Amino acid sequence: MFDEYIVEVQYNDNVLVAKKDVASIYELLDAVTEDRKYAKLLIIGHNTIITEDARIEVINENKRRKDSILAEAIIVKSIGQKILTNIYIKFINIHYPTQCFYVQDKALIWLSKHIKVTSALK
Fold first, then answer.
1. Mean pLDDT by 10-residue block, N- to C-terminus, for the chain (122 residues)?
2. Which of 59, 5, 54, 50 is nearest to 32 (CA)?
3. Domain around 13
4. Residue 73 lies in a domain
5. Is 89 in a helix, a strand, or coil?
6. How far apart are CA 9 and CA 11, in angstroms?
7. What is the pLDDT of residue 26?
8. Where are the alpha helices (DSSP H) in the chain?
9. 3-class SS of residue 2
10. Which candidate, 48, 47, 39, places its Cα nearest to that of 114?
11. In the 8-state DSSP scheme, what is residue 6?
12. pLDDT value at position 117?
């Protein structure tokens, strides 16, 4: 975690992410966040591919946690990943702010703004 609100989830380079991998990641995420609200920094590795079943699992898991996730920044490494991520953001009914980035520092600044806005609303 970068601070008490931002949790990093990173997929390694050159891997094929399957549904079971996603389930394991979300189990760990639940253990780390302990039902607290959080912002998610998702980093997708170089040449990393997420299977269709895994993408559906991500969508379902994120919907289940929609009240806990303050915002999600997704860092990609290629134009192909960016295209798929933007399709995901545009066409899936996401219940929290989500944006795609190439640079981690910009993603963290964006997440911090959403954390501050949410904290101010309390």
1. 79 95 93 90 94 92 89 95 89 86 95 74 48
2. 5
3. 6-103
4. yes
5. helix
6. 7
7. 93
8. 19-33, 52-64, 79-91, 104-121
9. coil
10. 39
11. E
12. 62
The pLDDT, as a whole number, for residue 120 is 44
CB–CB of 2/39 below 8 Å?
no
**Residue 121 belongs to a domain:** no
Residue 120 lies in a domain: no
Which phi and psi (to 5°) does residue 29 adopt? Answer: -60, -45
Which pLDDT score, from 0 to 100, does residue 89 have? 86
Residue 50 resides in a domain:
yes
Burial class (CB in 10 A: 0-12, 13-18, 19+), 38: buried
Per-residue pLDDT, 93 = 73
Q: What is the pLDDT of residue 121?
A: 47
Q: What's the structural domain count of the chain?
A: 1
Structure tokens at 113: 């703004």
Rounded to the nearest angstrom, the gap between the alpha carbon of residue 109 and the centroid of all alpha carbons in its chain is 15
Residue 98 vs residues 20, 28, 55, 70: alpha-carbon distances, Å:
24, 21, 16, 9
